[in-house]
């Protein structure tokens, strides 16, 4: 219903912010990372939102970046993972770190989130990994990507590519950026540098 709300930051709470948009105050539940990035009260702000409708309530969730919103929507698509768990996950790790954790099967990082146990972590990894089609990424059976120019991309680049696709970027755009990066960088560093260029 709402893609984003643009207005003035009117208040901050423990897990929410209030945005005044044309005289209407919207209470928007958000992650700790987004709360930290909102700036001072009275500043202009744009929040990318998701409206959660239940029988007994309508709750607005929102994020400072579209990447965080994309990851939130991906997380709540997993069976048994609701908006509160999605926020908890995004409060312990950035979208890039979560994407890397999902691609690499890092249950330890995922279970750091409040209310997310080992079973839920396994389900998140299993269900979201299935949404990354290795064939469409050009990954061979050894996890190595070969570019159209026959340039081999290492495992860390393959993981970075998978994470960027999870965040909603096209395979080709992500691949083009990754091919320009230093192959000795860690997966996390590659994702950060690629995001800067893709944005």
Give a written overview of the molecule.
- This protein has a five-stranded mixed barrel with strand order 1-2-3-5-4. Strands 6-7 form a two-stranded antiparallel ribbon.
- It is built from ten helices and seven strands.
- The chain is globular.
- Strand 4 and strand 5 form a beta hairpin.
- The chain folds into three domains: about 5-65, OB fold (Dihydrolipoamide Acetyltransferase, E2P) (Beta Barrel), CATH 2.40.50.140; about 65-130, DNA polymerase, domain 1 (Orthogonal Bundle); about 135-199, Ubiquitin-associated (UBA) domain (Helicase, Ruva Protein, domain 3, Orthogonal Bundle).
- With about 200 residues, it is an alpha+beta fold.
- Helices cover about 45% and strands about 20% of the residues.
- The longest helix has 12 residues, at about 120-130.
- Helix 2 (about 65-75) packs across helix 3 (about 85-90) and helix 8 (about 155-165) crosses helix 10 (about 185-199).
- The model is unreliable at about 130-150 (pLDDT under 50).
Low-pLDDT parts are 132-152
Largest sheet: 5 strands, mixed, barrel
Quick one: overall form? globular
The total number of structural domains is 3
Residues in helix, %: 40-55%
Give Rg in angstroms.
18 Å
Distance between the termini: 25 Å
Number of helices: 10
Portion of residues in beta strands equals 15-25%
Q: Could you give the count of β-strands?
A: 7
CATH superfamily of the largest domain: Ubiquitin-associated (UBA) domain
CATH level 1 name of the largest domain:
Mainly Alpha
Structural class: alpha+beta
CATH topology group of the largest domain: Helicase, Ruva Protein, domain 3
Widest sheet, order of strands: 1-2-3-5-4
- Secondary-structure element order, N to C: EEEHEEHHHHHHEEHHH
Please, what is the average pLDDT? 82
CATH architecture of the largest domain: Orthogonal Bundle
